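SUBJECT: protein chain
CONTENTS: sequence, structure tokens:
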Amino acid sequence: MFAVAAQSRVDDEVPLPGFAPELRFVVAAARLASGGAAGPTLDRAGAQVRNWDIVHRGLAHHGLVGLAVPGLLRTRAVPAAMATLLTSEHGAHVVGVMHRMRELVRIGRALDAAGIRHLFIKGIALSVQLHADPLVRGGRDIDVMIERSRLRDAEQILRDLDYELPIHATPADPDVTEPAKESGWVHRESRILVELHDRLCDNHALLPWDFATLWAERETVTIGGMAVPTMARRRLPVYLAVHGIRHGWQRMLWLVDLAAVLDTSETWDVALDDAAAQGLEGMMLHVGWALHHWLGRPVPAEISARGRRRVDVRLLNWLVARFQDGPDWYETLPRNSVRRFIAGSVWSRAITYMMKPSGGFWRRQLAFDLSSPQDRAAFALPDRLNWLYPLIRPFGWAIRRLR
């Protein structure tokens, strides 16, 4: 077990990363949201900001409006005009979360009435579980994991609740071997997005925890007066790390969540054991690097030392940094842009392969990359012609982008 006394330097003693001034301020705000003191660091970062509009957009982009804005408003780190804008933004955030809470309860009750086992993951459930408040996190959509055998029933329930698939979308087909892990459903009026999942990752080999295991270990949180099933807390570090790292920490919110759950040396012990059992130990060591260097959080010194000794961890550190501090870091890249293609199809895939550097996983991931579930749904070929899917892949990608 790691000794708590042997921790790395924390909070203001850890210098901010060498990002642009506005992003450095957002990182300092994330430190504040994760429970750090961060006062002097925040003031120094604020003194270097050249464009407060970018800071405002960056806080929203990184999902920090609910978590960081209340703390920022209690400081003098932002100008008065910025404080007024953030107050308005926070109010809109609270209203949005309350709308999603209402929908979550409505969906949960309908699934319960139909006897469909389900888990609400991330979003509001995680906000209650980690931060004891449904309003501080909220998320942008509602994610619910369903046992695969009841996916069709769950889809019909969403239709009955006035949800529909976006144009050109295809519902998950539970009868195929490897369907897409999720399907997105949009409410006709509110435009709230609900994603139905049947597993945690597209490639089940990355994190093979199945629904039955997660259901057996489930915890419940109370949302809108209803007991809501969600993933067990002990499972969260590895799952949240897989989710956040695959996306290059494009939302600092995900790292703040990990700071909340990895709060003792004992939780680090369990997380590393769980990660090692899945071949993801290097990934968790990278989390230690990110928590320390970006959020200034206390990390057992042995974890930092182990990470420095591993080439795969150092490479992963470098790869995720590619997602930060570009010229438009505070915006979602346009869907059909070259930069989004490079980020999603080059850097994101490179990160995925480095997360689990094993031959077996790489072979399965390569097969998955060459033949996507979307292509199989759009071009249904007989089994004897499965070898054509890698050839179809570029055309399927182009068609989806044009749509």
Notes: The longest helix spans residues 80-113. DSSP finds 18 helices and seven strands in the chain. The chain has a mean pLDDT of 87.
